[in-house]
């Protein structure tokens, strides 16, 4: 059964659990700020506002049912074992990042006598001819490539070396015998290449570093790049812990029965999302799902599978929140909410809800909060990896060492503090859960 629709709708419904890259002003109109009245309000008005918010939060649940234990047996979520495996940053990675940043600062070569060199970024037009006739995929305009990276067939990029801006050149080539297109494999062709312009990355010098970065010397610049890459590696390890912790709980939890009201709610929401796609395509719902390779019956099965996954997730999240006294308006949840607002470049919670819907916002905040709680209460082993080698507490060991033995022998951290939330792993969790369905 195809899963195009499920993947698309899951991505839409769970999009809020992915941390974005943007940021917004700090004066966002969050729920926390709504609880704090303007200075001009009286004490009585403030109390009324807080009472209204309290009443609203008490009514906000991810599932309709309150007796969670009747529907799901939640797996152990405290004291589970997790590995915080941080990928070691290598000298090659530092050099690659610097090379990328230099290429990003490449400037056009304007010297009339300047010619293309290996490593230059070129913009070209080209026409491929087979026996004097053009062939499919052999023609392009405004095509960008870096000479020497090997993105084209052998000889193509070599033919550009030495060309001047505006020059046109014919380059005879032979397609490889193992070329993916059997029609072109082993064929002799001629490419007519016109060089529009080319750009060259600057040379790495102390002077360039001082003028273009926050550092003064090459050594300082490399150290700074390494520190940034190490921070990225630490964040990636945290995201993996969130995902691993949640998946452990998800897999160890068992559904007793599904609350049909919640299932029906999810099915209705799923269909509304698909109907929006159908509207965009100018189709009726059934016409659209059939165009995606579904029958009416198989689409109903898909709706049910989606709903069962989402309801299981929400039952587990709500059950843990109930057991631990977590509410969607507590301090930690409000911090997650504020970060979502900032990460998605919104000015307020209302903007976030308008775009993604209140249900998606609540589910995202609840899931992220529970993931944080799982990690906060986990037994964490600090590991460092470099390629296939894994070490404990920074001590890289040979990859032949059995991973289970390495972990068992490692000292365990007691209730390690949970990392600051970003939520960038959650779309993976959603997709993995969908595949499980």
If you had to describe this structure to a student in words, what would you say it looks like?
The chain folds into two domains: 4-74 and 253-378 and 415-436, no CATH class; 106-200, Chitinase A, domain 3 (Roll), CATH 3.10.50. The longest helix has 35 residues, at 218-252. A hairpin with a 2-residue loop joins strand 9 (379-386) and strand 10 (389-392). The chain has helices at residues 4-13, 31-35, 43-59, 91-104, 156-160, 206-212, 218-252, 260-280, 285-291, 296-324, 331-343, 349-356, 358-376, 403-409, 426-436, and strands at residues 72-73, 81-87, 107-108, 121-130, 133-146, 168-174, 188-200, 254-255, 379-386, 389-392, 395-396. The strands form three sheets. Strands 3, 4, 5, 6 and 7 form a five-stranded antiparallel sheet that branches. It has a four-stranded mixed sheet with strand order 2-9-10-11. With 437 residues, the chain is α+β, with helices and mostly antiparallel strands.
Topology (elements, then pairings):
Blueprint: H1 4-13, H2 31-35, H3 43-59, E1 72-73, E2 81-87, H4 91-104, E3 107-108, E4 121-130, E5 133-146, H5 156-160, E6 168-174, E7 188-200, H6 206-212, H7 218-252, E8 254-255, H8 260-280, H9 285-291, H10 296-324, H11 331-343, H12 349-356, H13 358-376, E9 379-386, E10 389-392, E11 395-396, H14 403-409, H15 426-436
Parallel strand pairs: 2-9
Antiparallel strand pairs: 1-8, 3-7, 4-5, 4-7, 6-7, 9-10, 10-11
Helix pairs in contact: 1-15, 4-7, 7-13, 8-9, 8-10, 10-13, 11-13, 12-13
């Amino acid at each position: 059964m195809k899963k195009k629709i499920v993947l698309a709708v899951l991505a839409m419904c769970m999009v809020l659990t992915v941390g974005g890259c943007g940021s917004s002003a700090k004066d966002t109109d969050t729920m926390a700020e709504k609880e704090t009245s303007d200075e001009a309000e009286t004490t009585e008005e403030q109390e009324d506002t807080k009472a209204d918010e309290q009443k609203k939060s008490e009514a906000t649940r991810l599932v309709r049912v309150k007796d969670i234990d009747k529907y799901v047996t939640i797996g152990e979520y405290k004291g589970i074992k997790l590995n915080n495996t941080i990928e070691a940053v290598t000298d090659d990675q530092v050099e690659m990042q610097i090379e990328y940043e230099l290429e990003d600062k490449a400037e056009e070569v304007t010297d009339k006598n300047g010619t293309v060199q290996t490593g230059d970024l070129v913009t070209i037009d080209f026409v491929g001819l087979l026996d004097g006739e053009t062939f499919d995929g052999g023609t392009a305009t405004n095509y960008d490539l870096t000479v020497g990276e090997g993105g084209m067939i052998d000889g193509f990029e070599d033919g550009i070396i030495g060309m001047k801006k505006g020059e046109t050149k014919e380059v005879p080539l032979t397609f490889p015998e193992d070329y993916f297109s059997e029609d072109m494999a082993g064929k002799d062709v001629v490419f007519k290449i016109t060089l529009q312009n080319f750009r060259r990355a600057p040379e790495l010098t102390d002077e360039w570093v001082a003028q273009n970065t926050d550092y003064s010397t090459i050594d300082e610049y490399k150290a700074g790049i390494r520190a940034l890459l190490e921070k990225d590696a630490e964040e990636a390890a945290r995201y993996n812990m969130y995902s691993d912790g949640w998946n452990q709980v998800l897999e160890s939890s068992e559904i007793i029965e599904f609350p049909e009201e919640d299932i029906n709610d999810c099915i209705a929401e799923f269909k509304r999302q698909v109907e929006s796609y159908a509207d965009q395509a100018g189709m009726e719902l059934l016409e659209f799902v059939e165009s995606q390779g579904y029958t009416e019956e198989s689409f109903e099965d898909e709706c049910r599978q989606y709903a069962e996954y989402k309801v299981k997730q929400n039952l587990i999240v709500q059950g843990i929140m109930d057991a631990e006294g977590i509410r969607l308006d507590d301090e930690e949840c409000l911090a997650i909410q504020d970060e979502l607002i900032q990460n998605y470049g919104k000015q307020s919670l209302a903007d976030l809800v308008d775009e993604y819907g209140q249900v998606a916002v609540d589910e995202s905040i609840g899931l992220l909060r529970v993931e944080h709680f799982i990690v906060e209460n986990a037994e964490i082993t600090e590991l460092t990896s470099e390629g296939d080698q894994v070490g404990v507490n920074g001590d890289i060991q040979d990859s032949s060492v059995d991973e289970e033995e390495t972990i068992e022998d490692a000292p365990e951290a007691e209730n390690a503090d949970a990392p600051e939330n970003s939520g960038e792993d959650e779309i993976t969790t959603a997709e993995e859960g969908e595949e499980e369905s």
